[in-house]
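Support request, please re-run this one:
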Amino acid sequence: MNVRQLEIDDSKSIWEVNEQGLPGTGDVSEEGICSLLEYAELALGVFQGDTLLGFVICLPPDTGYGSLNYAWFNERYDQFLYVDRIAVSQIHRNRKIGTLLYSEVISLAEKKQIPVAAEVNLTPPNPGSMRFHERNGFIDVGVFRHGEKAVTMLLRAI
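Re-run finished. Output below.
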């Protein structure tokens, strides 16, 4: 396995892995993936050969990204590294790929001395993701409800 920066040419593979993580990852088109890559401060993939096993895309504050969850953090925090999405393909789960990706996210945040922001679905519930984030030092900083969705807002302090 190797970790490398994601590129626009990876967008189809990213979209396919993202689809396997629904509803936890949030629905996005392949074009939306391309936009996220343009906004991203950090976009990494774990590959085995040419096969994408998992990825993470993180944004800095104050981009043009229209996510309500992202806006929630922008309204409350001046600095953060926002984990917009992290996903691992179904057949490669439980192999510490998510942990590997988060170690890269946390390393960058520590270098920049900024917190990491993320959210986990409450409706529909995603207890596996909640346990994963708790193991990685995230704490609950609020609940955000919009429409039929509700998410727990999480922060990993410096």
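Residues 2-113 form a domain with the Aminopeptidase fold (CATH 3.40.630.30). The chain has five helices and seven strands.
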